[in-house]
Design brief:
Length: 165
């Protein structure tokens, strides 16, 4: 997995040291809050799978996944997020964030990794980039308004290598 930077929280250590404007003065409090929020989201999903994933979404949220139609609304997202964390592990870590000027919207981005096994019990790993758009809802909590992801590009030469004789 990618190396950790001062701006990232991995799901394994997201509960550890918090980002702090006193020790990292280049980060605004809004950016720190979004990064920590994303870390909590990732932790919940690592433990609770699809049900935990969908619980973070606003009623009018949208998901956009590589090669799939958009999924509109919390109910539809919950209906498609039916995986168990024991059989499908989705992990990610935020690499950066930006808070909107009004302080009630912002976004985070980073890299995700998904691990499972195929029907033959062979491990399957995929990964890519994501962006999460956050908004503050009426009760003051933050919810995911948009989650979008795209698969990593294939490894150079992997698509066109000829089999060895």
């Amino acid at each position: 997995m990618r190396a950790q930077s001062a701006l990232s929280l991995t799901p394994q250590n997201a509960a550890g040291p918090k980002l702090n404007p006193l020790t990292q003065p280049t980060l605004s409090p809004g950016v720190i809050m979004l990064m920590e929020l994303e870390g909590k989201f990732a932790q919940d999903v690592a433990k609770g799978g699809g049900a935990a994933f969908s619980s973070w979404f606003a009623e009018d949220a949208v998901t956009l996944n590589n090669g799939k139609p958009a999924v509109l609304g919390h109910r539809a997202i919950a209906a498609t997020a039916v995986w168990d964390a024991k059989t499908y592990q989705l992990t990610w870590a935020p690499e950066g964030a930006q808070m909107g000027p009004s302080g009630d919207t912002g976004f985070t981005w980073g890299h995700y990794e998904a691990r499972s096994v195929d029907k033959n019990g062979e491990p399957v790993t995929s990964g890519g980039r994501y962006i999460t758009f956050w908004k503050k809802v009426a009760d003051g909590s933050w919810k995911v308004a948009l989650d979008a992801s795209a698969d990593d590009a294939p490894v150079a030469g992997s698509c066109c290598a000829l089999p060895k004789p």
